[in-house]
Design goal:
This is Acyl-CoA thioesterase. The protein contains two helices and five strands. By secondary structure, the chain is of the alpha+beta class. A five-stranded antiparallel beta sheet has the order 1-3-4-5-2.
Length: about 130
């Protein structure tokens, strides 16, 4: 395995959260903006672990909400580097929903986030 493949594998990030009432909308499901916040956080951690540099989100792409996530669910976010450029990387994030009291689990949200590595002057810098 190459160095970059090892770094991609080592930077995979998994975060678990519970869907509490303060994160839901008036339908008692996870608010879309909160889901995006969680996904951006997981992808930021993944990009930082990969590059070990300062990174900023420059775009999101193709966020697909396949099912509502009811209050009382557990969600797992899995962020993984999907592409590496000179100064940027793409991170694919999958969100899985689990019922707290059964073993039912399904992928319910996916999205792609692009990050650019920056130097101390906030200029793009090589990402690895």
């Amino acid at each position: 395995m190459t160095d970059i493949e090892n770094r991609i594998n080592d930077s995979e990030t998994r975060i678990f959260k519970a869907v509490f009432p303060n994160t839901t909308n008036h339908y008692d499901t996870l608010f879309g903006g909160t889901a995006l916040h969680m996904m951006d956080e997981a992808s930021f951690i993944c990009a930082t672990r990969f590059s070990r540099k300062k990174v900023v989100t420059i775009s999101t792409d193709q966020i697909d909400f396949k099912k509502p996530i009811p209050q009382g669910s557990i969600v797992e976010l899995i962020a993984r580097i999907s592409r590496v450029g000179n100064t940027s990387c793409n991170v694919e994030v999958s969100m899985f929903m689990e019922d707290m009291y059964s073993y039912k689990r399904e992928k319910v949200v996916t999205g792609n986030f692009t990050f650019v590595a920056i130097d101390d002057n906030k200029n793009p810098t090589p990402i690895y």
